[in-house]
Amino acid sequence: MIDPRRLRVLRALADHGTVTAAGQALHLTPSAVSQQLAALEAECGQQLLRRWGRRVSLTAAGELMVVHANAVAAELERAHATLAALDSGVRGMVRLASFASAITLVVAPAIASLRSGSPGVTMQVQDVEGHASIPLLLDGEVDLAITEEYRLSPRTDESRLTRFPLYVEPFDVVLPTAHRLAEASEVDIDELADDDWIAPKPGNPCRDVLMIVCANPGIRHVSDDFHAITTLVAAGEGVALVPRNAFTAVPGSVAIPLRGEPPLRRVFAAVRRGSADHPLLKTVLAALLDAAPGHANADRGSST
């Protein structure tokens, strides 16, 4: 018999790449992770890992077991949701991770709506960068994530998620009011090729968008806080590319649409596959969708 708890350890290794990182995600020691993986290999009768000193990678059998582990995890989530649905009262707390502008635009209004419409349901919110929320969700640290994808970026980890689109927003260019193009109605990104840029840190998908649409931008300052970025722009330290709903006007700065087809940020809520029918999550998701701009036309759930 294969112990499903050990499949979770294998998934964590596949997600995080090292025994140490998998242990940190599962709150286990590296030794305990190694023991669980060795026991899983014995149960499967197959070598699941290749080992080179302290480095490990998945064999073909290991990759196959991760696919089955994802399916098992989804079924367990579904079973939990089904059992929860038997309870006639919807009460409890949902842990949610979201980036700041989505908290302002969607999460806070949803909390206010729940307080009056479903007082037994509460949320615990973590403010994290959009690209950090999905790992928290897959590791079980939160129940629901609000995150983002871009027109130019591929999806990842989608076989393990159910997605609920919330809204779409373009990126605008943010300029100092003294900039030569500050009075323009639209700006061509090529017109800013020689400007200094203020950009998010490496690893932030918003920085990736800048690197794709602007060839070799000269990045002078870095910050993951869009308000801080806008403040630096207002101080005359450069220009920036900012999602429209993340822009907060600062004296000395102006946001201008890009000419042509701008890069887009698609914002969505995500839950682990199989958990979308949990009564608590259904209640919170409904509140988030109702609070989202243009919610009447939103797709109410997309599993991939």
From TrEMBL:
Residues 2-59 form the HTH lysR-type domain. GO terms for cellular component: protein-DNA complex. The keyword DNA-binding applies. GO terms for molecular function: DNA binding; DNA-binding transcription factor activity. Keywords: DNA-binding, Transcription, Transcription regulation. InterPro entries: LysR_HTH_N, LysR_subst-bd, WH-like_DNA-bd_sf, WH_DNA-bd_sf. Belongs to the LysR transcriptional regulatory family. This is LysR family transcriptional regulator.
